[in-house]
Amino acid sequence: MKLSAFLAGAACAGAALCCPTQVLAQGKPIRIGVPTAMQLQVGRDTQDAVKMAVDDINAKGGVLGRKLEMVVADETENPETGISAIKKLTADDKVDVLVGGYTSGVTLAQLPHISEAKTIYLNVGSASPATNAKVKTDYDNYKYIFRVGPLNSAHQARQLTEFISRFVKGELGITKIAIVGENAKWVQDLVPLLKKGATEAGADVRATEFFDAQTSDFSPLFSKVKDSGAQYMIVVLSHASSDIFAKQWYDSRFPMPYGGIDVKSMDGDFCDRIGGKSVGEMAVNFAVRAPLTPKTIPFFDEFKKRTGRSPVYTAFGANDAVYIYADAVKRAGSTDASAVIKELEKTSYTGIPGIIEFDDTHDVKPGTPAFKGPALLLAQWREGCKREVVHPKELRTADFVYPAWIKK
Amino acid sequence: MLEILIVGAVSSAIYAMLAVGFTLIFGVARILNLAHGTFYALGAYGAYFFTSHLKLPLLAAALLAVGLVALFGIAVERVLIRPMRKSQLATLMITLAVALVVEQVLFLTFGSEYRNVPAFVDAKFTIGGVDVGGARLLALGVGVALIAALWLFIQRTRLGSAILAISQDPVAAQYMGIPSERIFAVVMGISAALAAAAGVLAGPFLTVQPTMWLLPIVKAFAIVVVGGLGSIPGSIVAALMLGYAETIVGYLVSSSWTEIVSVLATLLTLVLRPAGIFGRRAAF
Predict the structure, then answer these.
(1) Which residue of A has its CA nearest to B247?
(2) Minimal Cα–Cα distance from A363 to chain B, Å?
(3) Chain B residues whose beta carbon lies within 8 Å of the beta carbon of residue A307
(4) pTM for the predicted model, two decimal places
(5) Residue A367 domain-assigned?
């Protein structure tokens, strides 16, 4: 055994010596570190989407003659573990770039460590505007931070207000609304903005209710919303409660439709896993299988083929991030962080949810009627747990349908 | 008003199912079982697994899940708790370890995603103008029936008398020839089965995911502290109090305040009346 192993080793070494050019051309691989919450779908989708892009780029010969290589670390939803993941990837694995993120609290805790490691970080999961604030105020230390997706929560608030004024009021003709949100920091920040925007748009906000993330019984909340006289319920849900909320909304055949930011409802399997009880709900998303850009449908189909799942929002950002980074490295002619950052800042890349460009805080620019950047889509769950884009009108794939028990 | 009555009753029934088993095993065997919420979680996961993976009909899946969890409870008592029951601290630690290990096993097997337990009844019922999901009414009905059955079992049967005897005076009961070890196993089985049944019944309108064991154990703990550790009537009364207190707070104040009720109740009881409402002596 030992002898054969030695011979095999010698043969390899011999081959390498005989044809050194081949070995050199291959170079050291460019390492992409993926810090993400591996046990969650957002984390699995991040990895799979990075892998898809890596395989595709490698099949076409890599970047600057170098292959791409993915290294993963579990950052969970806990800031301490998140910091360890960054340290492992930057100090031990010596990655060239980081692509990942999910919980804003974790990302915020990681920032000083990313800055210290002087490694480019392409955020594809967390939405707090705070993660990018320091790029402007302390550019030298925080220029490494970019957000490819999702839109930050301030942009989301603005676009959600538009949904209320243009769709709920403008198209459904409903002015009496209730805003219901989970008791989390970002929701508490968002709801007053939403309320102000909705009121300015002429909506009558009849009730604003918060509930604990552990809430297991929504009957009291539903009762208050119903008594308020509201006819549409705008929700802002992120973590634990979406499943229970939808189930209890359906079980009690609650007499008004609901829609808004519902992070769990972005999951491709959300409707199936709660037994189809979300049919009728509208949830924001950053891409669904619709021709948003030439890349959207091919990506959804390829992802489904490879993994058997529908991708969630982290997948769009993660896949785009790898191509955006690869392009920047090509333009910079090296993986030197400062040179690549200069190129990243010039990015204008047609990605899965829209054209990706960065603003002066390295945050992804939102779409406007004039600029086809990523927009907040409101997709409705339909019979058979399929999704259709209902808002904005420019991207509509089907008209809104009321839940079966609501007469209109 | 009627809405508060109905919604509060459903919460109370689920709480009572959790708390009665928790208090029973403490009253009889002096086991403070932190893995009690785990039985609840395993009940729900069992129903999910048997219906979605093995395609069993719901009733068969539910009964199988409850039965298997009861056996698991007995196994935990026999293998892990019995050798170290003399030390309350060791029991506490070993049951906590069981809870954490099971949580990780569920994570690794099913992932962290929320799972769906199908409901026995999917229809909506309107009682006096109040819309209530069928699954909730069923949880209420079955919960009341199970607790009543347990009550009758303890009061009317020979085995029940033995359980009662041990809870009142373990030494005297042993002198009378009651096999206390076997009784502990039976009680652990019953306690686990009740928690599993609560999981199966609450699964359709609550969530099923690996950390779901934690909240029930907090609630069960609060209830038995308020009701008096070891007292079944105490835990039923306290379950009603907590179920209604949370519902009333939810309706009259805000849903974001409901979760503080149980913690506050535990704290106040420990300070003002450490033995709880029906307890004979302070458990701690």
Answers:
(1) A220
(2) 29
(3) none
(4) 0.78
(5) no
- Sorted by sequence, the CB contacts under 8 Å of residue B111 that are 6+ apart come out as A39
CB pairs under 8 A between A and B: 91
Domain boundaries, chain B: 2-211
Query: Domain check: are A211 and A244 in the same one?
Result: yes
Q: Per-residue confidence of chain B (284 residues) as pLDDT tens digits?
A: 788 898 899 989 999 999 999 999 988 888 889 999 999 999 999 999 999 999 999 999 999 999 999 999 999 999 999 998 888 899 999 999 999 999 999 999 988 778 888 889 888 888 888 888 899 999 999 999 999 999 999 999 999 999 988 888 888 888 988 888 899 999 999 999 999 999 999 998 888 889 999 989 999 989 988 888 888 888 999 999 999 999 999 888 887 788 888 888 888 888 888 888 887 654 44
Within a domain: A12: no
**Per-residue tokens: B114:** 């929320």
* Residue in the structure block whose two tokens are 């907590």: B242
Distance, in angstroms, between B172 CA and closest chain A CA? 44
Domain with A217 in it: 154-285+376-395
Contact between B256 and A274 using a beta-carbon 8 Å cutoff: no
A314 located within any domain:
yes
Residue B262 to residues A166, B32, B239, B277, B278: CA-CA distances in angstroms? 43, 18, 10, 15, 18
Beta carbons within 8 Å of B228's beta carbon, 6+ residues apart: B234, B235, B275, B276, B277, B278, B279, B280, B283
Residue identified by tokens 């297991």 is A216
Residues in chain A with CB shorter than 8 Å from the CB of B7 are 217, 219-220
Per the structure, how many domains does chain A have?
2
The answer to whether the CB atoms of A216 and B113 lie below 8 A apart is no
B-chain residues near A39 (CB < 8 A): 107, 111-112
Select the residue from A210, A217, A227, A247 to test the B interface by mutation, using most B Cβ atoms within 10 A: A217
Residue A380 lies in a domain: yes
B120 contacts on A by Cβ (under 8 Å): none
Q: Which amino acid is at B44?
A: A
